Amino acid sequence: MNQRTLKDLLYEQVARIGKAVSSPKRLELLELLAQGEKTVDVMATELSADIKLISAHLKALRDARLVTSRRDGKYVVYRLTGGDVAGLLVTLREVAEEHLLELRLALEQMVADPAKLASVGREALLEQARRGDVVVIDVRPQVEYEAAHLPFARSMPVAEIEKRLAELPLDKDIVAYCRGPFCLLSDEAVVLLAAKGYRVRKILDGVSEWQAAGLPVQASTGELGQPGTGVTHQEPVRRNFNPLQSTIKLGGQ
Predict the structure, then answer these.
(1) 183 catalytic, yes or no?
(2) Which one of 86, 178, 193, 219 is the catalytic residue?
(3) Alpha-carbon gap, residue 82 to 161, rounded angstroms
(4) Which domains does the chain have, with CATH numbers?
(5) Does the pTM of the predicted model rise above 0.85?
(6) pLDDT, tens only, 68-119
C-alpha cells in the first residue's frame, strides 16, 4: 500500500464518525443516550419520530461504533459505546456555537431572560450544594437521574414538581438542570416554581457538560441499570467552556 492510499484510508475511517453525526436527529439521539440506556420505543417517543426512522438512524450510529445495544427480553436497549462519545457531542456543540452566528442567536433566545440563569462557577455551585446553601434539582426522568446526576442533586422530574412542592424549601435558592443547553425541561421547572414563589434559576449544564469539565457525577445504578452502586465518576478536563455554558446566577447574587 502506497502512502497516498494509506492516507486516504485513514481519513476515510475518521470520516465515518463525521458522516454518522451529520444528521440533526442522530445528534439528538446521542444526547438522549448520553443520559443513559434507552429502547427504540422510548427514543421514538422523545423525538416524536417513527420507530423505523429511529432504527435507521441507530443503525448508522452503530455502524460508526458510536452506540451499541443489548437485548432485554423483547426489547433492544441502546447505549453509547463510551463517555468519549458524549464528550464528542459537547465538543461539536461548542465548535458550532463558536463559529455559527445562527446558533448563537438561537441560544440567546433560549436565555433571553437573564433572571433565569445563575453566575457562580461550577466548583462554587458544587460547594454550595454540599453545604446545603442551595438545592439542586434534576428535572429529567427518574431513570436518567439514576444513571448519572450532578453531586448532591435530588431527582424531581418536571411532571412531578407540582405534587412535590412540599419537598422544596422556600427560603433557599433552587437550581434546576436537565440534559444540557438545548434541553427545555429546566425552563418549564423555572416557570412553574417561580409562579409558586420559589427563588429558582437554571443552569445550562447537563451531566455531559459537567463531566467534560472534569467534574464528578454520581450514579445510582450500575452500568447495566442495576441499582445501588452509588459510584462517582471523574473525567479529565478537556477544554475551556464558553461563559454562557459555565456560569449560573443565583437569586440575590
Answers:
(1) no
(2) 178
(3) 32
(4) 3-81 (1.10.10.10), 106-246 (3.40.250.10)
(5) no
(6) 999 999 999 999 999 999 999 999 999 999 999 999 998 888 776 655 776 6
